[in-house]
Amino acid sequence: MSVQSVSISSSHTFSKPPVSAITLVTNRGVQGDCHFGETVQHQSRLHIKPAPTNLRQVHLIPIETLEKIDQAAGKVVAGSLGENITTRGLDLVHLSRGTELHFKTTTSNQVAAVVVLTGLRNPCPQIDKFQTGLKERFVVRDAQRNIIGRLAGVMGVVKQGGIVTPGMKIVVVKPAVEEKLEVV
Q1: SS3 of residue 65 by DSSP
Q2: What's the rounded Cα separation, in Å, for the pair 109 and 76?
Q3: CB–CB of 18/5 below 8 Å?
Q4: 137 in a structural domain
Q5: What is the DSSP string of 100-142?
Q6: For the whole model, what pTM was predicted?
Q7: Which intervals hold domain MOSC (predicted)?
Q8: Domain span at residue 90?
């Protein structure tokens, strides 16, 4: 389990360009990212008063999901969906709420940063603006067409700040009580 890519954007664009490193700040998110802050920064939620706590400080998605979607849709790469951290070898959407992801340096094996999972990212209509028909590829439906799963990644908050770079190891620390991730 490792970090495949990291991405950031200071403006509310849909995709975020990959960079060599991101800095996570405790209780705030990714320094310099448009979603940085203790309260919600997503444009669709800025009207809520008082502003709710930002449970969407960091967006993570597995590269395997993007690769699978890319085979069918094309042009979906790390950063395409606005995620900050693209992982490899980690089934994020099936982890529990409260799971901690410890990002470890490869040289010293020290924990460089910790993100706590808060919920699932709901595939939003902006995905279809990026690529027509793509949103539907990020939902799982049953025979009656009810949504029973979401594949657009997970959201989290920063418990311990630090620098995250591609190639870092990720160690999963499960919570004492497991709760299914819900949309945040």
Answers
A1: helix
A2: 31
A3: yes
A4: yes
A5: EEEEE-TTT--EEEEEEEEEEPPPPTHHHHHSTT-GGGGEEE-
A6: 0.91
A7: 17-173
A8: 2-173
